Structures are given as structure tokens and as C-alpha cells.
Amino acid sequence: MSEIFFQKSLLQTYSEIGLQLTLFIFLGAFLIQLIYQTWFGSRLFFYKKYKKKQAVSERKPVSVVITARNEAQNLKAFLPQILTQDYPEFEVIVVNDASTDETAEVLEELSLTYKNLYSTAIPLDEKFSHSKKLALTIGIKAARFDWVLLTDADCVPDSPQWLARMQSNFVPEYNFILGYGAYKRMGGFLNKMIRTDTIQIAINYLTYAMAGVPYMGVGRNMAFRKSVFFEKKGFASHYKLDSGSDDLFVNEAAKGKETRVELAPESFTSSLPQPRLLKWIKQKRRHLTTGGMYKWKHKLLLGTEILSRYVFYFLLPVALYITSFHPLVLAVASLRFLLMFIIWFKALWMFRQKDLWWTIILFDLAMPFINFLIYLSNKIVFPRKAWR
Fold first, then answer.
1. CATH superfamily entry for domain 46-272
2. CA 21 distance to own-chain centroid
């Protein structure tokens, strides 16, 4: 009888320890989330103060570099809005990367009207495969000016002041300027998912950079010094990797004190989103191959945030159940969601994406899981070579 009582008592003790450990892990995940939200995410609210620390730059000449493969229609539609930016001195260099459509003819026609347009071409050679990095390197090497501003052929500036806003950060102490590149608003659930994912990525890399921890940028809208590009040997360390022409270069070469963020609405660009789910997944697969090459501290920071988010979501219903909806657990959950909503609403307002307000919780939970599945597919299925 005493032996049975002892076993029950032991099981009860183990059960209590398990419950206490669950609550401890749950609160730990909450504290990690709280730190990330207050230290990084909240910086969006202090952007104006952040910008005041920056000296106003004189209007220096700029080289805009664009690579294009079979982008005739996009160049015809979007390139004039880049060529007519309200800025005194700049050039636009387009590298025609082995296109088989009418890209060459479009560039030749536009060059008759716009004297600041220059183009070069990489001929098609089936025996020689290369990534976007070769075309970018050629374009950057051809640039006449030290400050290089990157965008894509399917991108359009949101304002004639795009170049001027980005250039306002070109002061001697800075080498990298990170901007926001949105995707155009279109109908359908996939479009909302793509735009929400883009905002989540932007919140991370922009607020991290504002905190002095730049780890990536997007080639749709970023600038750097040509001299720094060649000093750091450009894409040499990851040239064989199809993706990473933007984020891996920033991850490798950018330093906190030399990197600035530009978030004025006039500085944004907008790109055409993938129209099909499978094409978007293929694009994401290419992008996610670069994460494993980030510096260890960046992988630790990003991985800890995602892990703590999932632990919080997974243990929240458990914590509520075992504590019978204790006010402390309810307060913890409410505070985390409140901070998340505040940061997201600020980002949606700043990035002009207010229609996505209802997707916040859904994608806050789903996107890391979707990204993990896509990343896992890269490990299982060998990715096809693709120009990126």
C-alpha cells in the first residue's frame, strides 16, 4: 500500500515539475519575443529621430545599375520612370544578359530619347552558364560614379524623388544604403501572402540595420560605393551560388556604423509579384539558399526569434489550460500580441500596405513554417540552375 502511495506521489511530483518547466519555457519564449519587439521592431517608431542624426548630403552623381534577361516589356514600361528622375546628374546602366526577346531593340530605341541611358550585353552562349552576379559585376564595373544604386528591370520607383531620397544618405561615413522594395498590389490571396512576407522581411532587415546589425538588403532598392564593392571583392566568395547577389554581399561587407536605412515613401520601389504559387515557391527556394551562408551571429539572432515565436504559439494554449486561464498568462499573451499589432500596424502604415491588416496573425504564425518547408525542400530536392 505504501509502495503504491509512493509511486503516486512520485508521479505527482514529476507532473508538477513538468508543468512548472512548461510555464518556465513559455515565459522564457515570451521574454525573448519582448526583447526582439522592443529592441528591434520598435525602431520603426523612432525613424525620424534616427534620420536627424544624419548630415544632409550634397547632390552627388549616381550610377543606377539594372540587369535584364528577357525583360523587353518591363523595360519599355518602367525604365522611362527611372530615366526621368528629378535629379541633376545620374546615369542608368542596363546589362542585357543573354536575352532572346526584344530587350536589345527596346534599349536601343530608348537610348535615342534618353542620353543618360547606357547599355551593354552578354551574348547568349549555351556552353557558358552564369548567374545574375556576372551581369551585375559588369554593370558596376562600367559605372562612372562611385555611388551605385541597384534596382531590377521589373521595378518602378514610387516617385520621381526616388533617386534623390536614396542619395540623401550618401555622406562620407556611409557605404551602404538599404531601401524598401515592395510588390505591387493585385488581387488574390497569393498576392497578399507575397506582400505580407515582404513586409516581415523588411521589418527585420531594416530595423536590424537601424540597430547597427545589417545582415541583408534587397537588390530591388539598395545602394553602395563602387570602391567598397571591389575592395571587398564583390561576389567572389559566393559567386557559384545562383542567388545572393544582394543579401550575401551586404551580409559579408556591410558594417553597422557604415550602413543607413531610407524609409521615406518617395524612396520606395514596386515590383511585379509572381503570378503563380509554384513560381513564387521556386523564387523563395532560391532566396532561402543564401541564409545558410550568413554570419553565425545573424543566423543566431534570426533563428532565436523564429524559434521563440513558435515555442510561444505552441505553449500558449498549454499554459492557459494548466493554469486555468490565470490572469498572469492572459496578461503575457495580451502584451505580446499587442506589441506585435502595434509594430505591424506601424509598418503597414509606413510601407503603404494598410489593406494587409487582417493577415497579421495568420502570417506571423504561418510564414516561418512555410519558409522552413521551402528551405527543407532545398535539402531534399536539388535546386535547378536559374538566373537570379
1. Spore Coat Polysaccharide Biosynthesis Protein SpsA; Chain A (3.90.550.10)
2. 36
